[in-house]
Amino acid sequence: MNRTVLIAGGGIAGVAAGFAAARAGWQATVFERAAEFSEVGAGVQLGPNVTRILQAWGLCDALNECAAFPSGLHARSLSSGEVLATLPVQDFQTRYGAPYVTLHRADLHGLLLKAAAREGVQVHSHALVQKASQSADEAVLHVMQQGQLLLHTADVAVAADGLWSPLRQQLLGDGLPSFTGHIAYRALLAQADLPLHLRSQDVTVWMGAHAHVVSYPVRGGESLNVVCLTEGRLLDDEANHLQALQTWNAQKSEAQTLAELQHALRGACAPLKDLIGACLDWRLWPLCGRPVMKGANQHAQGRVAWVGDAAHPMLPYLAQGAGMAIEDAQALAAQLLHASSANVPEQLQQFAHARWQRNARVQARAVRNGRIFHASGALRLGRDLGLRLMGARLMDVPWLYGHRQS
Hints:
The structure is a single chain. The protein is α/β, with parallel strands linked by helices. The protein has a single domain (4-176, 290-401), classed as FAD/NAD(P)-binding domain (3-Layer(bba) Sandwich). Helices cover 36% and strands 26% of the residues. The chain has 14 helices and 18 strands. It has helices at 12-23, 48-56, 60-66, 92-96, 105-118, 166-171, 236-240, 254-264, 270-278, 321-336, 344-373, 377-390, 392-395, 398-401; strands spanning 4-8, 27-31, 43-46, 73-77, 83-87, 101-104, 122-124, 127-134, 139-145, 148-154, 156-159, 178-190, 203-208, 211-218, 223-231, 283-289, 300-301, 304-306. The strands form 4 sheets. The chain has a 7-stranded mixed sheet, sandwiched between helices. Helix 1 links the parallel strand 1 and strand 2 (27-31). Helix 1 (12-23) packs parallel to helix 5, helix 1 (12-23) packs parallel to helix 10 (321-336) and helix 10 packs antiparallel against helix 11 (344-373).
């Protein structure tokens, strides 16, 4: 019996979904609008809830080749530099059965893409999915390839086409994402080029009023990913081109970027100023999003499912965007494993009901973390005191890291 799935989007969510579906015995085809299958951006953090899945998928060796394995996650005051608390993530292998890792987005995407190819997933670049339609018996993707509009049919269609998902806008009709009021500036540094006191193999979060900075190793520890997240507004011209700025690689002039960072990080301690001063080639990323998921219908309808940012874009304040996409892929494959063409809608509903509440909880926690990281006044004092007193207990998230999908 041929069981087929078509996937719109060849990023982390789409490739993971294709790989997982192929492992479940489905013929998977991925369509990516870009000319090449690649992933831009800088770093990602993967907790044991995600690395446990990669282990089950047989990707341990590939992960070990490109990931860094930090020993701790340090919460520091942006103004004083004080280490308020440390979460010893090197213990996660023992506590949760899988490690906490940091790596470059392109490395994660690359290892998933190679794994998908080994499983027989068909990948097509320069293939723009313009529309999805469905009947009781099949799903259809309308794809522009080599100047021709082609119709591809399958038992299942998966929309993994990102935050600005055209398929979501078409089928769910719930409007476009909106600017969250948060802006990320990111830079990638070779650790060998940094003075010794700025090099690090751990995750550090520097928390200040209305801004914070996070840094961690990638590329096996050879590079340091640095992201400054601020609250602010966009210029009128930027707001008018908001979707174009979602490429991860938008830039302002060096002088303008430095002026904005200096304003956001005014009052920062000397070590953080040194780190920011060592960063060059900053990239701008206005954070856009949607309200927290409200129901299973935002994950699947009929023979179409949404995964990753197409279903549940997340602020990066819980470091789970890529992780939830991979969890989606595993959960989708679990439902497809014993599905037939005839009962696909029922199985996709099972997938949606299994996933939407967890994704909504992670979305909401990320929003809450943003308020905590950027706290000022009495809330900041309470946050810092709590971290000093409770330390790792306050930073650990057992419901997140210990999650095991049935």
